[in-house]
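Feature request, filed as a ticket because there's no other form

It would be nice if the structure record came with a short human-readable summary line next to the tokens. Right now we just get the raw output. Example of a typical job, pasted below so the devs can see what we mean:
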Amino acid sequence: MDRGEIVELEIDKLVAGGAGLARSSDGRVVLVDGCLPGERVAVVIERVKRDVAFGRAVQALRASPDRVIPPCAHVADGCGGCDWQHIATHAQGSLKRTIVADALVRLGAFADPPVLPTVELPALRYRQRVRFVVTNGRAAFRRAGSNDPIAVTSCAVLHPKLDRVMTTTDWSASREAELAYGTATDETLRVAPTERSRARSGQYHEIVAGHRFRISARSFFQIRTDGAEVLVDLVRRAVGDVETLADLYAGVGLFAATVPTPHVVAIEGNPDAVADCRVNLAPHPDAKVHRIAVERWRAKRSYEGVVADPSRAGLGLGGVASVLRCRPRRIALVSCDPAAMARDVRALAQGGYELAAVTPVDLFPMTSHIETVASLVRR
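Raw output as currently delivered:
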């Protein structure tokens, strides 16, 4: 099997990352973008390693009943922003649940993982934060698999207010830009660095679960408010009633501010997020915020509950060790990568915790990205 070769393959299932898994005639695993389980597709091979090849479906020879025409015209132009627009929205939630369960079986070593149905959210016009490049003064996204820009006249998943700003503004002074919008406050953040100043600065506010949050340009925040509300609810349920809480990878304090507890400590390494977190937790008299990497933090006491929301790479060994040092009764692990989540949950299970439930949340419809909240209890 060589790069550029076109082969016919049967797709067995979708795996973490959203690709379809197939096997070639010589037994090699092939990961295929743009397909669905049960389909027979013509695949162009784009990359070959010793044990696995990577390809892209160019024609569905036997299509799944869940295959649809992408609702956004820019998919045909090659835009790489939404890799699941070929999948009917009613099928995306169940597929994501299956991917999460598969990751827990293969990478977490759970025979029958307790994966709940996916929490599904509106699939269009939901995104409240976006970063894009500029070409000839116009907003553009990257072509799938490359850095080539594709100018866009609209974005099917972007909030209408941001869509208007993005597509009607002359961005000639910048190479890239970023927009964010607070639906509850009607505040819009524009970040458009120029050649003279590459700084990313500015703030906006949003309200989640009755709490007002300041969010700076360099601080992470969920890209949709309804999704943030769902995550807060799931984390509250996972942690339960606790007197003390450690919020690891706290960001601007989304969970530290919204999980009812008398005593909370927030651990975060990003200085901008730490500054926001201190503002956002100011109404909480017994909240403490520490600027330090989670992996370097040494808990000086135990905490009844821990919530951890690491980056896509997951907790890793250092993060798991920091969680275990807290000796919590209950853990809520928020993850944006099923494979990383499965590895982290396995490590926490080896550290004495039982996996009670995992809930997938479809924060990013039309894409293969999957958010999960795992609930673990000490044995």
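Something like this underneath would help us a lot:
The mean pLDDT is 96.
The chain is about 20% helix and 30% strand.
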